[in-house]
Amino acid sequence: MHMKICVLPGDGIGKEIMIQAEKVMARIADLFGHDLEIDHALIGGAAIDEKGVPLPDETIELCSGKDAILLGAVGGPKWDELDKAIRPEKGLLGIRKAFDLFANLRPALLFPELKDASLLRPDIVDKGIDLLVVRELTSGIYFGEPRGEEIRNGRKFAFNTMIYSEDEIERVARVAFEAARKRRSKVCSVDKANVLDVSQLWREIVIETAREYPDVELSHLYVDNAAMQLVRDPSQFDVILTSNLFGDILSDEAAVITGSLGMLPSASMGLKNPALYEPIHGSAPDIAGQDLANPLATILSVAMMFKHSFALDKEAMAIEGAVKDVLEKGFRTGDIMSSGMKQVGCDEMGNLVVQAL
Ligand code: NAD
User: Fold this and answer.
1) What CATH architecture is 1-106+264-357?
2) pTM above the 0.85 mark?
3) Ligand 1: which residue has its CA nearest to atom 8?
4) Residue 76 Cα to ligand 1 middle (Å)
5) Would you place residue 83 in the very low, low, confident or very high pLDDT band (cuts 50, 70, 90)?
6) Between vectors from CA 22 to CA 16 and to CA 27, what angle results, nearest 5°?
């Protein structure tokens, strides 16, 4: 298969982890007979330094003709004092908007080899954590109008609007049902339908959409209960489908219970290409340039890319298997290090995954 990919390393550890991801992509292309066409472009602080803006037009143009985008991370103290409108994070929001990436997929998977890293009790962790949060990403309260601040009767008021249209709910629900079919065929939709009108519509449309997926089991939870269930027994979840605000919070909660930020990939998808793949962690300026970063979240983002953008499940499974293999052999970067294991740097971890492949 011919694959067109745009690589955006970004800032901090972005460059180091992306080198490892590219090694893995090249190895997969060799092994499975694919043909990779890779371009590189600037985003975040690196783009501000060279072009004065966090998301230059050239980057959007270069990404436009591609099947997928692979992103490292953006941001760092160097750019923290800049005006909010041109901060590195604007690059991320901009690229999501440019390609209408309305569905954010965040798996929270705890490799059994890393179960000591989990913050939960061993008896809970023993049941396993392997879930996927599908979060609506381009609508809801973060984008709803009207929004703002005003003076009413001499007092300051501030307000935002939580709003969804039926088609916005339906398209993200479809992503969740399709994803569930590739997993354990269960979707739990999370809302606050006992209080919010917007959640009542959410639930109604999710139920309607579910009729086309009779093979997928649908359940519903209120968001407060979902937050509790995630720490009480995360093994009950397969796919969690939720709106932008609730998904922001629940996907971070799901990530932190696995205890390993450096291990978790993500995908953001629209109705057409390119989709965007990135690790969930940031640019880790505290360890940048020291060969200390864990590249596995980015390498697992490559696996997600093969699965979701190219429907190459075998290639994705080969990468996931190689990561598991390296962990089973006891190799760890500093962030997931525990006693008796062998500590390696970012570059060596990348090489080990390539060898395991
Ligand atoms: P962070 O995720 O960069 O780092 C948090 C902690 O985890 C740090 O101690 C870091 O060293 C460690 N860490 C993160 N990823 C790691 C990895 N792969 N291997 C080993 N250790 C890792 O979050 P932060 O410190 O809050 O933010 C730093 C910068 O990153 C900020 O400018 C922030 O805005 C930005 N940020 C970017 C993204 C993104 O690009 N998607 C996400 C979050 C934060």
Assistant:
1) 3-Layer(aba) Sandwich (3.40)
2) yes
3) 284
4) 9
5) confident
6) 135
